[in-house]
Amino acid sequence: MTDDVLRRAPLFSGLDDEAAGALDASMTPLTLRRGEVLFNEGDDGNQLYVVTDGKIKLGRTSPDGRENLLAILGPSQMFGELSFFDPGPRSATATAVTDVDVRSLGHEALSPVLREHPDVAMALLNQLAGRLRRTNEVVGDLVFSDVPGRVAKALLDLASRFGRKADDGVHVNHDLTQEELAQLVGASRETVNKALADFASRGWLRLEPRSVVILDLERLQRRAR
Amino acid sequence: MTDDVLRRAPLFSGLDDEAAGALDASMTPLTLRRGEVLFNEGDDGNQLYVVTDGKIKLGRTSPDGRENLLAILGPSQMFGELSFFDPGPRSATATAVTDVDVRSLGHEALSPVLREHPDVAMALLNQLAGRLRRTNEVVGDLVFSDVPGRVAKALLDLASRFGRKADDGVHVNHDLTQEELAQLVGASRETVNKALADFASRGWLRLEPRSVVILDLERLQRRAR
DNA sequence: TCCAGACTGTGACTCATCTGACAACCCGAA
DNA sequence: TTCGGGTTGTCAGATGAGTCACAGTCTGGA
After folding, report:
1. Hey, which residues 173-202 in chain B have their CB within 8 Å of chain A?
2. A121-155 pLDDT, tens per residue?
3. In this structure, are strands A67-73 and B163-166 parallel, antiparallel, or unpaired?
4. How far is Cα B168 from Cα B191, in angstroms, rounded to an integer?
5. So where does this one cross the membrane (chains A, B) (predicted)?
6. The pTM is what?
7. Which residues contact B99 (CB under 8 A, 6 or more apart)?
8. Number of residue pairs across A and B with CB atoms under 8 Å?
9. Which nucleotide is nearest to B208 (CA to C1')?
């Protein structure tokens, strides 16, 4: 049920059922098709969103048109908070990677909640701190790791969030093209393709369209460091 | 007065004089010499710090010993908040770049303030969101820009925070060795040195030990993009 | 005042990654 | 069933930046 998905969002932690219900009621549901854009880098807007189903990608475009993905977000994850807490134009473009359902929340609706429920503010601080931690990690990876290492790391991250364990390995339906995967790790599609092919030839994983099956988690983890 | 410096910290915005005084009183002052380490990556600890004088660098070390700087912090700036809001080991090492004065604050002292002053929580959310924005920007730069571009950008950032305008240009006493500057932009010392030498030969800036004078802000800005 | 150690400046060599250029493939829509 | 666009797989250069290896310079202590 999408209600469960919502309740699992950090935004709702620390709220009793009544308050959660009230907050939920003030959110607007929204559906997008794969490829549709929710908002663009540079847009105004202070809505905050929670994914209830599907995946969203957050990306930035360089002056010369190349693209870089900051994150892939799945159910229960929040985005759009930057312009929400630090008013200003959106710093990234949000695009649907699959068909998606999201809920949006305006500034007016959340502010009173933050005032009355300090726990929610704490949960959000916690959430942002965690996000900052992970982003710092990404910076480190870009500086220290080579492309195959970053690809391995990205696959493991996707696996931990979207993977399903099966007899033959961990099935990761990431829904990303190799082009998108490349933008996510900050490399060219060709180089990422070679890294994937290499992993596959070593028997660490099996490639499928927009999906991989991880066969040897151990080695992939070792390659990621 | 250091009190002014403190009051300018986001932590204190939204507090009336009384509350600010109380919070101030619960902070412990601390002095470090250039090179001294305040805390290490991996340490436990949930203190939050505010710089009152001097500069602190936050850095991470890769498994093979190379180093990467996440930020250079000056007066009024806060750090150590990650382990504060998202309990866990410190994700970076904090080292004094110059002799420094800082104030530290324990979790026990701030929690009640957050509960009673929602404005402070909002200011902190705002602060973290801003930090996240800038870190995302850094990720983009690492992916899109070459080393000279990143060096130019770093110099401009340092100039905006530590620069003093004079007749012959903007004097930026960054107090960083070229090695540190290189770690900040994620490049080798040699490459950074060459970029700086190139900028100097074009007349965009004049090199001084641990300091630069920016002579042509315009061009440097253009090179940064 | 002198020295040692830490910084800065610069070259030659190497290598990972990007670029550009194709061929092969797959799947959905006419 | 066939066509076409969006994918995936590979190759042969080109190149930015890292590493190594010095020499020159500055600076703070003894």
Report:
1. 186
2. 888 999 999 999 999 999 999 999 999 999 999 99
3. unpaired
4. 27
5. none
6. 0.91
7. B31, B32, B33, B34, B54
8. 118
9. C8
